[in-house]
C-alpha cells in the first residue's frame, strides 16, 4: 500500500512534467502550470528565452508548476526510501475503521464524495467547449488536451471563426458535410464553466389550421415569439406578442445586423398599421423568413432543458451545470492546498505550546487571542482593494484564509500534547537521547492522529463555506473562477429565474451535508470511549 502510493506520486510527477514539456493540457495534472501562467507572482519572465527548454514561448519560467512537480516527486521518493514498507494498522485502528464502515450515513457520504472528486479530476474531458477528438481529412486532432489553439480555418470554418479559435459545437453540427470534419467528439457537457457565454436558445411553435400559434402540446401560446434570421443564434427577424395564439399589440422587425427597420400594430390577429424604413421594399423584407415559422426565444437566464442546457443558464449566459462543475473543482483544489499548510502550522505551534509551556505557551496564547479578534471580513475588503487585479486569484484568497485558519486547532493539540508529554514513553525517549523534534513528531504526533482525523472534515466544510461567503459578498475569487457563492448571488438578484438560486443552493447544501456526515461518522468512530475499558 505504501509503495503503491510512492510509485503513484512519482508517476504523477513524471506525467505532469512530460505534459508541460510536450505542450499537453492534461486533466487536473496541468493545473499548477495553468495557474502559474495566469498569475504574475507565480512565474518569472526571463529576458533570454533561448537558454532552457523549461521556458514557455513567451519566455516565462513557471516556477510554481515546477515546484509542485518537485514536491510530488520528492514526496514519492521519500515515502519509497524512508517510509514504512507496508501499512500495518493496529487492532484499535482496525476497530475504528470497522466502526466507521458500520455508520452507513458517513460511509456512503464518503463514497459519494470520492466519486465527485474523481469526476472533478476529469476536468476538460468531461466538461469543456473543446472537442476531445476531431478527424479532418484523415488527420486526428485532440484539442481538449492540447495547449495549442486550433483556428477555425483548420477545420473549414469561415467568417468570424476562420482566424479565431474553432467553434467545436458548430463543428459537431456540421460534421460529415463537405469540407468539414468527418467526426467530432465533444465532452459530456460541451461548455466551459466560465468565459463561455452561449447564444439564446429557441423552441419552435406550431401554427394550427385556424391560424393560431400553439405550443407543442397544442395549447394556444401567450407571450413573445419571433421569426428568426438564424435558428442557431436565435437572431430575431420580426418579434410578435401573442395572446391565446393571436397576434396583438406591437410587432418589431430587424435586419441581420440588428438594425430596427419595421414596426406594426395588431389587433385580434389582424394588422392595423405598419411602417418600414429599411433598404429595399417592405415585401422583400417580410419574405426573408417564413411567416408560419415562429419560435419562442429563451433569453438568459434560460430555464432548464432549453437550448441544450440541462440546468439552464445564468444571467451571463453560462451553462449552470458546467458552472457548478467548475465550482466543485475550485473547492477541491482549494482544499488540496489549504489543508496541508493549515494543519502543518496548527500542528507545529499547538504541539510546541503544549510541550514547552512557560513563556512560549503564554506568548502564543496572547498572540492567538489578538489575531482572533481581528475582523476577518474587513481585512479581506482592505486587501482586495489594495491588491492589483492581476495579482488576485485563488493564491491570494487561500493565503488569507490560511492566516486565520490555523489558530482554531492549536488549543486542542496543546491540551493533548501536555497530557502526552507526561507519559512514560516520552520520558524513555528523553533518556535515550531523542531530540525534541523526534519526540514531538515521531512519538507524540501518532497519538494525536484521532484528533486530527476528526478535525479534517469540518475544516473542509468551513473552507467551502468561507469561499462561498466571500464570493457571495463580492470579495472572493475573480470572475475567471466558477464560484457557487457568486452563482447564489446572481440567483437571489433575480428570483424570477428560480433555477439559478436553486442549483447553487442545492450544490452547496449537498456538499456540506456530505462532508458533515463524514465528519460526524469519523468523530464517532474515533471516539476513545468506544474502545476504552475503565477499571
TrEMBL record:
<dbReference type="InterPro" id="IPR035906">
    <property type="entry name" value="MetI-like_sf"/>
</dbReference>
<feature type="transmembrane region" description="Helical">
    <location>
        <begin position="393"/>
        <end position="413"/>
    </location>
</feature>
<keyword id="KW-0472">Membrane</keyword>
<feature type="transmembrane region" description="Helical">
    <location>
        <begin position="367"/>
        <end position="387"/>
    </location>
</feature>
<keyword id="KW-1133">Transmembrane helix</keyword>
<protein>
    <recommendedName>
        <fullName>ABC transmembrane type-1 domain-containing protein</fullName>
    </recommendedName>
</protein>
<dbReference type="InterPro" id="IPR000515">
    <property type="entry name" value="MetI-like"/>
</dbReference>
<keyword id="KW-0812">Transmembrane</keyword>
<comment type="similarity">
    <text>Belongs to the binding-protein-dependent transport system permease family.</text>
</comment>
<feature type="transmembrane region" description="Helical">
    <location>
        <begin position="335"/>
        <end position="355"/>
    </location>
</feature>
<feature type="transmembrane region" description="Helical">
    <location>
        <begin position="61"/>
        <end position="81"/>
    </location>
</feature>
<keyword id="KW-0813">Transport</keyword>
<feature type="domain" description="ABC transmembrane type-1">
    <location>
        <begin position="328"/>
        <end position="519"/>
    </location>
</feature>
<feature type="transmembrane region" description="Helical">
    <location>
        <begin position="102"/>
        <end position="120"/>
    </location>
</feature>
<feature type="transmembrane region" description="Helical">
    <location>
        <begin position="448"/>
        <end position="475"/>
    </location>
</feature>
<dbReference type="Pfam" id="PF00528">
    <property type="entry name" value="BPD_transp_1"/>
</dbReference>
<feature type="transmembrane region" description="Helical">
    <location>
        <begin position="495"/>
        <end position="519"/>
    </location>
</feature>
